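FORM 7B: Structural annotation worksheet

SECTION A. Query
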Amino acid sequence: MSRVLIIGCGALAAEITALKKANHWSGVDVQCLDAALHNRPERIAEQLEEALDKRHSDYQKIVIAYADCGTGGGVDRVAKRFGAERLPGAHCYEFFATSEVFQELADAEPGTFYLTDFLARHFERLVIDDMKLDAHPELESMLFGHYRKVVYLAQTDDATLRSAAESAADRLGLPLEIIDTGYGLLASSLEEQVVTVS
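SECTION B. Predicted structure
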């Protein structure tokens, strides 16, 4: 029996898998839910609960790789039911940047659109296509008119992703700021949770 299940957002799959490999977490299983839930936060807690109903009894410890993510406490309710821990903060932008840095960014410019490696890579699908902006261009100003800049919180140093972030900012007609965050609190939080079982 694996001792730990890390269950989380598909948008974090690459980072979680990289941490598992780098730290040699052989007793850890990883399951990621559909990253498209990023656009449907009201469904996150329900899908998380359904997945854990099927798998929780197979594990000594469950780590939920979501922050609150717009669920209004839904992730916390699921975590409590299964005796699990979740990632710190309100959303992935906060735990990648760290709470202090994210708060400084938010205070400096509340109208900031944030990208992570995943969101930069999948901007066209998750933002343009899912929000049907090509079919309904009038929605673009309604949805993005209050934004003043794009901040790309880069987990990796990848020229392709930087170019994708530039394209996303250009599409929105906004200036781009790039901040190299690495994995931020994602790494330290998961490492702490996994180590407590060893």
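SECTION C. Observations
The chain has a mean pLDDT of 93. Residues 99-180 form one domain.

SECTION D. Sign-off
Analyst initials: ____
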